[in-house]
Amino acid sequence: MTPANLADTVLSAARAVFETRGLDASALPASTAVERPRNPEHGDYASTIALQVGKKAGVAPRELAAALAEELGRRPGIKSVEIAGPGFLNIRLDAAATGGLARDIVLAGSAYGRTERFAGERINLEFVSANPTGPVHIGGVRWAAVGDALSRLLRTAGAEVGTEYYFNDAGSQIDRFARSLLAAAKGEPAPEDGYGGAYIAEIAAEVVKGAPDVLSQSDEAAQETFRQVGVELMFAEIKASLADFGVHFDTYFNEKDLHDRGELQEALDRLREQGHIFESEGATWLRTTEFGDDKDRVLRKSDGDWTYFAADCAYYLDKRKRGFDRVVIMLGADHHGYIGRMKAMSACFGDDPDKNLEILIGQLVNLVRDGEPVRMSKRAGTVVTLEDFVEALGVDATRYALARYSSDSPIDIDIDLWTKAGNENPVYYVQYVAARTASVARNAADLGLTRGDAADFKPDLLTHEKENALLKSLNEYPDVIARSAELREPHHVARYLEKVSGDYHRFYGECRVTPLGDEKITDLHRARLWLNDATRTVIANGLSLLGVSAPERM
RNA sequence: GCGCUCGUAGCUCAGCGGAUAGAGCAACGGACUUCUAAUCCGUCGGUCGCAGGUUCGAAUCCUGCCGGGCGCGCCA
């Protein structure tokens, strides 16, 4: 029995009680949940439903709880129900009902944890979105890890997800990039407003290698070559470093296409139809203040040029036209000022900004060595890059470290901590369970111990306190995923895996899986092997959501 | 000034309106002739920033204040 099943059972028992007592069933919630009490004396699971609906239904919570306890106690799989405090229901399950899940988990394999929670929802996730003027830097790194994990989470929870990287290779930033390349190729110092760092010289050298006569051209023509080829090289490098990091995007979207296809004008027309456009001081404005923004925003400047915000509008409209119900954009904390205008823009299109547009803000990340933030990259000069992270920690530790914390909190990633081989390093702690379960399974196979047929599995043998705790944790996995996906917070998955890891290590310490010496193989050994393998399944599935490997050996 | 965000153990952080607020680190003390000790167990450690409010019940929701971070352009 899963927690979700139990919750349904509680609700149906409540309905039965309401019916026999002639109570108003509208006081009951559409769905309920059971929680796992901290204190083991409070049972395997607890329900607060009597507390929640007692008053509404006009019955004292304890009285309602008593009736519910009686009804619930008759349901299959439930060993006992006690009433505690003001009306808590403390529920204990039959060992077989809990233990049976170990088999279900093993048989489901990599599909364990999948739900249909978000079935039918089309969600667009945009993250990283750095322009190709340099390597992916620290601001994008957090979202590369978190955004990618979120996309995997949402897919596992049943959503149809499109990941997207938005860039602009035509703006003034790119001009500065091109001028910087040209200067580097000519051995001149970087322009005052240009880009520094060794990568500029490297890219410039690459360009010259591919087009040896470039420096004999006029500065104007040369700069154009550097712009085109340089952007191509830079973008290839960005994609390669993201790929090395395990991150792939379904769509790389160039702002230029919005211009070429006239989508900015289309967005403007659409907004005008909705009645939110006005002209002032020669410019064209969107009245975003109508929907709570601080000030109205210019879409088209008095010189006729489009603003960046106009492209944002067109891009949003483009995503919506492609059928995405939810447009999710992940930005760094320095961009949180955009939320107001973006939400208002969505409303101006006639959308519901609470539903159709989500903007997630990620706080700052520091890479820390010896207690001091690492500020500079060897290659990029002014900032720390994705490669710096991976070089310092490796892919697994980097992804785990970034996905482990709420994006709302600024974090320091300590190089010493995340490269340690010990339980103070969370990624090792969790991966060690993957290795340990694999090792136990190998040893079992060597001794001729196999799980046997699913039909012969005896879940009621798993009665040890540590077995019970581990089973309950494993059973929470689908709920953790669904909740994590709903909140857009992958860090819950990491925290959950750490909890499962602790439960497994404690189980391992007290419950021997493989037979000792010439001990005979028993049903208990086999039952524990099911539990061992179920643990490996959950750890492997969870780590894969975070893009982290589940090694067989360490 | 306005807006967003954070404030929980010495440190780094979890915490779904529920019961005695948790984990890791640090400190101290234990556990390997047996499945990986990269592990486990125990001890120590709290005005959940402050003050009100809502609630049967608040770290959690609301309001105000204090403190830290960030943002407030016809820039990109």
Question: In short, what is this structure?
Answer:
Helices cover 50% and strands 13% of the residues.
Main β-sheet, spatial strand arrangement: 6-5-4-10-11
CATH superfamily of the largest domain: HUPs
Number of helices: 20
> Beta fraction of the residues?
5-15%
CATH topology of the largest domain: Rossmann fold
Quickly name the level 1 CATH class of the largest domain: Alpha Beta
Mean pLDDT level: 90
Task: Please tell me how large the radius of gyration is.
Answer: 29 Å
The main β sheet shows up as:
5 strands, parallel
Structural class: alpha/beta
Number of folding domains? Answer: 4
Query: Termini, distance in Å?
Result: 34 Å
Shape: flat
Query: What is the name of the CATH architecture of the largest domain?
Result: 3-Layer(aba) Sandwich
Approximately how much helix is present in the residues?
A: 40-55%
Could you list the spans in which at least 5 consecutive residues all have pLDDT below 50?
none
The count of DSSP E runs of length 2 or more, i.e. the number of strands, is 14
Give a structural overview:
The chain has 554 residues and is an alpha/beta fold. It has four domains: 3-93, Gyrase A, domain 2 (2-Layer Sandwich); 101-116 and 422-546, Orthogonal Bundle (Isoleucyl-tRNA Synthetase, Domain 1), CATH 1.10.730.10; 122-167 and 248-362, Rossmann fold (3-Layer(aba) Sandwich), CATH 3.40.50.620; 172-239, no CATH class. Helices cover 50% and strands 13% of the residues. The strands form four sheets. A five-stranded parallel β-sheet has the order 6-5-4-10-11, with helices on both faces. Strand 7 (277-280) and strand 8 form a beta hairpin. Helix 6 crosses helix 8 and helix 10 (263-273) packs across helix 11 (308-321). The structure holds one RNA strand of 76 nucleotides.
